[in-house]
Design brief:
Helix content is 60%, strand content 14%. The protein has three domains: 217 residues, no CATH class; 149 residues, 2-Layer Sandwich (Alpha-Beta Plaits), CATH 3.30.70; 242 residues, Alpha-Beta Barrel (TIM Barrel). The protein is α/β, with parallel strands linked by helices. It binds ligand C2E and calcium ion (CA) (2 copies). The site of one calcium ion (CA) has 4 residues, from strand 13.
């Protein structure tokens, strides 16, 4: 009977081991860890056992029980020492080792306590002592089944080891009451096994469910922090990594933040399609990851922008990393047999000098990137304080510019463009001036770029054209007005409409309006530009190419667009490099102008020698301080009146 019981017990234990194997390692560990929780229950159990055995030995005067008492004490001390020596929370201790150590202690304690109870029966101890020790052992066995249900093999093993000696002793005695005790225990064991297994299943299932949902949550979080196209961290991932790093950062630690923007990436997308664009981004991401240190977080910050957040990176390392980034990105990328070349602009800011926290570090890197871009792209700029000052000044100007337009602080000055043959004024160029109540007179070079960046240029440009057209309508019919247009103003929707409404409001004939545009306008041949020029040309508006010779070298657009004038930049006339070479250039431009029937204006004439030189070179028109600075509208009207009285620009007629 005992044999069949052991067999069925064994079978059940095998099943239990099998079922616990199906639990994942983490869940299994949680279950085993439960053995080590609430050590107080173990201590109470041990104390009960030891104290009861001591009392039993004393009362019954069975000396061997003192040995049992000593054994229990040794086991209890060994278990406590072993448990203190290793922490179940430490990953270094394997789950199996934790379980084994517990198992040895638990099994030996259970067997000894069972054996002591059996001895009180076999050696005919006092009835009260038999009750005390048998109750002690069985209570321990039953209690332990509930306590250790997380490891059913241990729980049931303990129950078995506690019960077995008592059952043997009961059979040995063979009296009716002891046979009844034997049967009681025999029935108790399967009942307890079933209860333990039930508790185990409930425990296991709830731990597994909790683990599954924890894994799912972890997966979702990883997904939410990853960019799908490149596999890098996205904005959320970057923020998370930055916050984590900053929280662990000791004072004095250096961190570099690289903000990388691919140059003209929009063209790749527009010309080759988004799928190709995505593959280029993925390749760039791979290369950035390769050159970045292990501890760095590389993120895609949306569009074609990337960020490398690099802890423990000093200035020297950052400079090296920046040049590696450029080198890696510049290597041609092959997509579908096409060779693509990509470039990038990089802005770098360092903690702690360029920002005390993540936000200010990002701001500084962004500013540095902006400087890298406006300085001609494909380069790295490290943040420095002057960048912030520039920005603050720009913001101030932008804000005040909007107010200035409303407050009428802006005015238009006019500078004459003179016929070099007759000395008569043919055109006035309208040049905007800003008389700031505190800062004094501001030059257009200072605020026009701000107006362009902020979009104020559209409103401002339309206002200037309207003012210039109104002034010109008061002048004699043969005098025209020239207005400078910014490329951004021309590309804005409804740009031609703004010009036409200025003409209509002033009643000025379109042929008396001349629009000065620069070569930069043709850098990206946008249909909006072509449309603007064609529409206004058809109405009779004239066009002049300003600052000729300073920028874009292709002359193709001179043939394509109907310019009436070319204004040779003043650096060819009065700059420090004026000499034989610039004279030759002026001659070439003049020759081209006469072939294409365009007039050539020399800008920046400050001396009679310069005037004579450009006239000799073939320029027909001139402009510069030699004739007049830009003057307010009433002065312009006066200059014209004087001229009409037969005194062409005072005595400035060139003989
Ligand atoms: P720009 O179109 O080349 O205008 C000529 C600039 O040269 C003017 O400077 C003028 O005062 C200056 N200048 C004229 N003669 C001489 C000379 O003999 N010597 C020297 N050294 N300089 C001379 P300003 O008025 O400061 O304008 C600077 C630039 O600002 C202009 O260059 C133009 O690009 C832009 N700008 C001026 N007014 C407007 C405007 O109303 N709209 C737009 N979009 N841009 C404007
Ligand atoms: Ca101009
Ligand atoms: Ca010019």
């Amino acid at each position: 009977m005992a044999g069949s019981l052991t067999r069925s017990l064994k079978r059940k234990l095998v099943i239990m081991r099998g079922s616990s194997d199906t639990v994942s390692g983490r869940a299994k560990r949680t279950l085993v860890k439960s053995l080590y929780t609430q050590p107080s229950t173990l201590a109470i159990g041990a104390f009960n056992g030891i104290a009861s055995t001591a009392i039993a030995a004393w009362v019954s005067e069975i000396n061997i029980l003192y040995i049992g008492c000593a054994l229990l004490t040794i086991i209890a001390v060994a278990r406590v020492t072993a448990a203190l020596g290793m922490s179940p929370d430490e990953d270094g201790t394997s789950t199996r080792k934790l379980e084994l150590i517990y198992e040895i202690g638990a099994f030996s304690y259970a067997f000894v306590i069972g054996l002591i109870a059996a001895l009180t029966i076999i050696l005919d101890g006092d009835a009260s002592v038999q009750v005390l020790m048998t109750a002690n052992a069985l209570c321990y066995g039953v209690g332990i089944c509930a306590r250790n249900a997380g490891s059913p093999s241990i729980a049931i093993g303990q129950l078995g080891l506690v019960s077995l000696p008592i059952m043997v002793a009961a059979i040995w005695k063979g009296s009716l009451a002891f046979i009844a005790l034997f049967v009681n225990i025999l029935l108790l064991i399967p009942a307890m096994i079933s209860i333990t297994l039930n508790v185990f299943r409930v425990l296991r299932d709830s731990i597994s469910a909790a683990e599954t949902s924890a894994q799912l949550a972890e997966k979702m979080q990883t997904l939410a922090r990853t960019d799908v196209v490149t596999g890098l961290a996205n904005r959320a991932g970057l923020n998370h990594a930055m916050v984590e790093t900053m929280m662990a950062t000791q004072p004095g630690r250096r961190i570099a933040l690289f903000w990388i923007d691919l140059d003209r990436f929009k063209e790749v997308n527009d010309l080759m399609g988004h799928p190709v664009g995505d593959r280029v981004l993925a390749e760039v991401a791979r290369r950035l990851r390769n050159v970045s240190p292990e501890a760095a977080t590389v993120a895609r910050f949306g569009g074609d922008e990337f960020v490398i957040f690099c802890p423990d990176c000093d200035r020297k390392m950052s400079e090296r990393l920046a040049s590696e980034v450029h080198a890696e990105i510049m290597r041609a990328i092959r997509v579908d047999g096409e060779r693509l070349e990509v470039r990038a602009s990089v802005g770098v800011a360092m903690l702690p000098e360029d920002g005390a926290d993540v936000d200010s570090l990002m701001q500084s890197a962004d500013l540095a990137l902006y400087h890298a871009k406006v300085n001609g792209r494909s380069q790295t700029h490290f943040y420095d304080e002057s960048m912030s000052r520039d920005l603050v000044r720009k913001r101030e100007i932008e804000h005040e510019l909007r107010a200035a337009i409303k407050r009428d602080e802006l005015s238009i000055f006019f500078q004459p463009i003179v016929d070099l043959e007759s000395g008569r004024i043919k055109t006035f160029e309208a040049l905007v001036r800003w008389f700031h109540p505190e800062k004094g007179e501001l030059r257009p070079d200072e605020f026009i770029p701000v107006a362009e960046e902020s979009g104020v240029i559209v409103t401002l440009g339309n206002w200037i054209t309207a003012q210039a057209a109104r002034a010109c309508a008061q002048w004699p019919d043969e005098v025209s007005v020239a207005v400078n247009l910014s490329p951004l103003q021309i590309r804005a929707p409804g740009a031609a409409l703004g010009i036409l409404s200025a003409l209509r409001a002033s009643g000025l004939d379109p042929s008396r309006l001349e629009l000065e545009v620069t070569e930069s306008l043709f850098l990206d041949d946008s249909p909006a530009t072509t449309h603007f020029i064609e529409e206004l040309s058809a109405k009779g508006v004239k066009f002049a190419l300003d600052d000729f010779g300073t920028g874009y070298s292709s002359l193709g657009y001179i043939n394509t667009f109907p310019f009436d004038k070319i204004k040779v930049d003043r650096s060819f006339v009065s700059g420090p490099n004026v000499g034989k070479q610039s004279e030759a250039i002026i001659r070439a431009v003049v020759e081209m102008g006469s072939t294409l029937e365009m007039e050539i204006v020399a800008e920046g004439l400050e001396s009679i020698e310069q005037v004579k030189a450009v006239r000799k070179a073939g320029c027909t028109l001139g402009q510069g301080y030699y004739f007049s600075r830009a003057v307010p509208d009433y002065m312009a009207a006066m200059l014209l009146a004087v001229e009409r009285k037969g005194d062409p620009l005072a005595q400035r007629k060139i003989g």
